[in-house]
Amino acid sequence: MKFFIDTANLDQIREAHDFGVLDGVTTNPSLMAKEGISGQTNIQQHYVDICNIVDGDVSAEVIATDFDGIVHEGERLAGLAPNIVVKVPMIKDGVKALKHFSDKGIKTNCTLIFSAGQALLAAKAGATYVSPFIGRLDDISTDGLSLISEIRTIFDNYKGLKTEILAASIRHTMHIIDCAKIGADVMTGPLASITGLLKHPLTDIGLKQFLADHAKASGQPV
Ligand code: E4P
After folding, report:
1. Which atom of ligand 1 lies nearest, measured to the CA of 188?
2. Which atom of ligand 1 is nearest to the CA of 166?
3. I need a surface site. Which of 89, 118, 157, 190 has the fewest CB within 10 A?
4. Number of Cβ within a 10 Å radius of residue 66
5. For 197, which DSSP code?
6. What pLDDT score was predicted for residue 77?
7. What's the pLDDT at 206?
8. Cα-based torsion angle of the residue sequence 127, 120, 186, 179 in order, rounded to the nearest 10 degrees
9. Consecutive 10-residue runs of the chain (222 residues): their mean pLDDT?
């Protein structure tokens, strides 16, 4: 399973990268706004800054919602760095644009996926990734993990289908573990959801004991 971090915060991206387990980054307009990034020039520079930290795929979301606008904006974003993935919303013109980008060899991430039918449509149009939002489904008492499972079943029926399932809107470590059990290809979540995987009290207790025993055997003060 690939690990992406879901943020536009450069410090957190650096920290995840230095941790050694980072495969990519996803952003969206809300995450960019949270960092106070606005205006075309600043937004583009911010994507370049992210791509200078991370070698793996970096999703950059278009703002346009019409076909010509999505294509124009997406091609400009794709030109910023070789690892940019153009993030396109699940709307009719977005699907058309996915096909256009796919034909041109530009990688895409179809975002705001909330049903298996939407995922199938995006895959048919040649999306590199589909992003089902599991946390937002859980928020409205709908099982987000079931959606990942349904899409996995469908995609596995067609071996030639190259689209990867990117489990998005991850909120905590259990989402990551459950997505890995189901076989999501990628997960994207906040830094805390990734570092949270480290934690187990028995690890802490065990390490403390090992170090104490070593110190005792070496005649060092415990
Ligand atoms: C990532 O591609 C999505 O935009 C993101 O995971 C959405 O997460 P949220 O539901 O926590 O905003």
Report:
1. 6
2. 2
3. 157
4. 14
5. G
6. 98
7. 98
8. 170
9. 98 97 98 96 98 98 98 98 98 98 98 98 98 98 98 97 98 98 98 97 98 94 70
Q: Which amino acid is at 46?
A: H
Please tell me the distance between residue 205's alpha carbon and the centre of ligand 1 in angstroms: 35
Residue 213 C-alpha to ligand 1 middle, in angstroms?
45
Q: Report whether 51 contacts 81 (CB < 8 A).
A: yes
Based on its alpha-carbon atoms, the radius of gyration of the chain, rounded to whole angstroms, reads 20
Judge whether 34 counts as a catalytic residue.
Answer: no
DSSP H helices, 7-64, are 10-19, 29-34, 40-53
pLDDT (0 to 100) of residue 222? 66
Residues 113 and 105: their CA atoms lie apart, in Å, by 22
The token duo for 43 is 């937004």
**Rounded Cα gap, residues 144 and 128, in angstroms:** 21
Distance separating alpha carbons of residues 206 and 25, to the nearest angstrom: 34
- CB neighbour list of residue 103: distance below 8 Å, 6 or more residues apart: 126
Asked if residue 80 lies in contact with residue 73, where contact means CB atoms within 8 angstroms, the answer is: no
Q: Is the pTM of this model over 0.85?
A: yes
Q: Which fold has domain 2-217?
A: TIM Barrel (3.20.20)
pLDDT value of residue 221 = 73
